Amino acid sequence: MKKLKMVIPKGRMYPNVSKLLNDSGIPLRVNDRHYIPKIGDPDIEAKILKPQNIAQVIELGSHDIGFVGYDWVKETGAQVSEIMDLKLDRVKVVAAVSSQVNESDFNRKKFTVATEYENISRKFLNKNHYDYRLIRTYGATEAFPPQDADMIIDNSASGQTLREHNLKVMAHLLDSSTRFIANKDTLKVRWKREKIEELKMLFESVLNARGRVMLEMNVPSEKLEEVVGRLPCMRAPTVSPLYKEMGYAVKVAVKKQDTIRLIPLLKKIGATDVLEYELKKVII
Predict the structure, then answer these.
(1) What's the whole-model pTM score?
(2) Which of 40, 121, 190, 275 would be 115's cystine partner, CB 3.0–4.6 Å?
(3) Which of 46, 63, 44 is nearest to 55 (CA)?
């Protein structure tokens, strides 16, 4: 049986990728001591790897598709096709130094840099003509200063870990988030390309739904036009007449952040029996 080979990141990105697959109707079942999960799609075969390796194994063709941080695509220089930016697990790759350090000192002396991102770091450091030594780290990079490194180049989501280690950002090198990527040759195979397009559609529908809710309400006939005119819907609201011509039932998908303003306004205009509920998928 033909299979599309998918690779899933271990570690920090795993929970959000797993939830995306589950919400898309492709459940994962994982044994913590095994790297081959059971996946709820007969056309897909999955494996779990460290994110640092994913872009390269997809480039080599041992896997067709996968999920990886953009930082590791750039770090490895892997030639892969980006299918979509999932905008999950967003981080910044930054250069950080001790809060007590004068940044101008780095222009006058040789210093030590600790990082997991050797290629990204060398590009930044060479561009700025720094005189440096580089230590390749394997996690916990923030623990190196000040005794073992003068600067770190690492990813940061909120900056909280840097602050806890008395570090400040000196330069912002790169924005990263989880990307859905594919091997370039995989996309030349028709059935694989079509399957990937189906997956992309499912992922988009789930991500669209996360930012929206459904509002449902009853509206008196004389208030219908005013209510509909205030609804920021994707296309047009669904309007159905109520039993015995008692007005109309109106349904509309709106952005979650709009509801705090919208529900009181609709109530004030004359809408009644307003319901708000979550959506699973939204296909635009």
Answers:
(1) 0.87
(2) 121
(3) 63
Instruction: Report pLDDT digits (tens) over 181-190.
Output: 999 999 999 9
Q: Are 236 and 256 within one domain?
A: yes
Task: Give the confidence band of 122 by pLDDT, cuts at 50, 70, 90.
Answer: very high
Query: Strand 91-98 to strand 167-176: parallel, antiparallel, or no bridges (unpaired)?
Result: antiparallel
Bond before 146 cis per omega within 30 degrees: yes
Closest CA to 121 of 146, 92, 95: 95
Token representation of residue 153: 């180049």
Q: What is the reported pLDDT for 198?
A: 97
- 283 domain-assigned: no
Is the same domain home to 62 and 95? no
CA–CA gap between residue 146 and residue 166 (Å, rounded): 10
Cβ atoms < 10 Å from Cβ of 255: 12
Per DSSP, the three-state class of 238 is strand
What is the per-residue pLDDT for 234?
67
Q: Which domain holds residue 141?
A: 91-176
In a domain, 284, yes or no: no
CA atoms within 13 A on the CB side of 113: 26
